[in-house]
# Entry
Amino acid sequence: MVELVAGADIVPATLERFAQRYPGVKTYASAEALCNDPDIEAVWISSPNRFHAEHAILAASYEKHVVVEKPMAINLEQAAAMVEAADKHGVKLLAGHTMSFSTPIRTMHRIIRSGRLGRLCALNVWAFTDWMLRPRTADELDITQGGGIPYRQGPHQVDTIRLLGGGMLRSVRAQTGQWLPERPIPGFYSAFLEFENGTPALVMHNGYGYFLGAEMVPWGEDKKRYTLDERISVRRALRDGTRNETDDKQALRIGGSQEMEVFSRSERKAWAPHDLGFLVASCERGDLRQSAFGVYVHDDHGKHDIDTTGSQTTGVGQRRAELQELYDAVVLGKPLWHDGRWGMATLEACLAIMASARGREEIKLQHQVPVREDYDIDFEVPDF
Ligand SMILES: NC(=O)c1ccc[n+]([C@@H]2O[C@H](COP(=O)([O-])OP(=O)(O)OC[C@H]3O[C@@H](n4cnc5c(N)ncnc54)[C@H](O)[C@@H]3O)[C@@H](O)[C@H]2O)c1
# Structure
């Protein structure tokens, strides 16, 4: 069992909303005060990117296990220090929140690993989102503090293709794009990533919110964060300087009118392309891609729709999977798949997307780690 013991935030109004949502749960006005609580065994860090390393190292120094949101850190030096702190204090460090934890991707990974469709030959991922139109704090509009699509959304795609492709990327060649003057951070990238074994992966994310990936599936039209009219008015308000980003951002936070449900309570919620995007994994004898409730397998026998919303989790089950992975590692002694070294390898590739764009050159990677042989060995894939 996982129990929520306490929460910390430096903004009293946010802490108050947290207290209302979770009566009886302790609140702290600083990360340090929270880490000092002996009742707490693990800390989930979702502070702004620039604090991820500081807060993870702080929590580790108090011998708390850590889940850190993506991006794990701003640079590789910070990531290495986080890994070192976790090792030194004997705690688990989980690099969390990417779509690689979702049930359709875990299903694809198990099918690829089974060899049933032959060798994985290529990966293609397309994301078209309205990420750049969502309200932002000042630090989110600063690339040196981890702002922009490659830092914030790159981890979803990179973590996912690394899982499906075996983990060991060899190099990255990429270009980034920044074409909304009111948003001084990259809102686009297009990258060619090659694995050590030669498998290619093409990934792209356009966050400017004109065309949305949800429109790529027949059932996706109404599965959008902002409607077309909302996107038009947000863009207009950004251009004429009338948008109240502070209020809009606070509305997204806990207890706000636009808060997103983190642990979905709905039993069956259809997937449509969003932050990870539309993914096709091509193998020698078939293609895999997401379906409304799982994974399509296109093989020599036809097209199969595997429902993955069964017994293990509801929906894509991402947050639950993160907690489960940490729980299994801490309580049951199972391996932590998305550990600090794994997260650092994903961060390295995201940083390489930006470095390749800056230098207009291919970047060789040095910190990649493989997917363990026993990754998700107990994860059940429905028959097809
Ligand atoms: N917004 C999302 O949907 C989303 C999804 C996945 C991951 N993330 C990640 O979560 C992190 C936060 O993003 P967000 O959009 O929720 O931002 P946010 O600004 O809404 O949340 C950050 C919170 O941290 C608090 N905070 C700031 N400095 C702090 C400090 N020193 N100590 C303690 N608390 C502090 C802020 O008051 C705020 O409540 C980012 O790393 C982001 O990449 C966000």
Remarks:
- DSSP finds eleven helices and 14 strands in the chain.
- The first strand starts at residue 6 and ends at 8.
- Residues 340-359 form the longest helix (20 residues).
- The chain has a mean pLDDT of 93.
